[in-house]
Design brief:
Blueprint lengths: L4 H11 L13 H12 L3 E6 L8 E7 L2 E7 L12 H4 L2 H4 L9 E2 L8 E2 L2 H19 L1 E3 L5 E12 L5 H14 L1 E6 L4
Parallel strand pairs: 7-8
Antiparallel strand pairs: 1-2, 2-3, 4-5, 6-7
This protein binds iron/sulfur cluster (SF4).
The site of iron/sulfur cluster (SF4) has 11 residues, from helix 3.
Length: 188
Amino acid sequence: MDISRRSFLKVAGAGTVGLTLGQLGLDLRPVAAHAYAMKIDGAREVISICPFCSCCCNVLMHVKDGTVVNVEGDPDYPVSQGALCAKGAALLTMHVNDHRLTKPLYRAPGSAHWEEKDWDWTLARIARRLKDTRDRDFKTVNDKGQTVNRVESIFQLGTSQMDNEECAVSHQMLRGLGVVHIDHQARI
Ligand code: SF4
């Protein structure tokens, strides 16, 4: 690109309100291709499936030294044709994320502090609370005398971090307990 210093400064000043190097006429494709190649250089490519909804978009996962280093849409997948929605595009952060919690955190009633707990303690606590609440509130009939067999004081909100199969198992368990208030983050 032929550009004088004066016109460069003029345009660069305008760049602070939104122009990019690409808009200046510089071809950034070689730079982008080089950076991309460095990231996946020597990586093994694996075709996988985004677990977050029933579209089941294919994803290309690049694995280097046992770690996922890149996730992107699969251009050969006919439904999404290489595109991913925001959840699928953030799939890498499920695997590689310094902020990801690795231990359960518990905040006691009335407390302002979170405590780290192990899974045995946490699962026993959840099971106890679930059983006590169900035993206390389970209704076999409604106010009209109709059979309902349900518990209305428990609510479960699923997360998009659960895959389709985990959602199915969770749903079956909750229905088995008589829980009727169930929703999922992917829907709201
Ligand atoms: S969450 Fe998004 S990327 Fe994942 S399968 Fe559904 S539509 Fe595709």
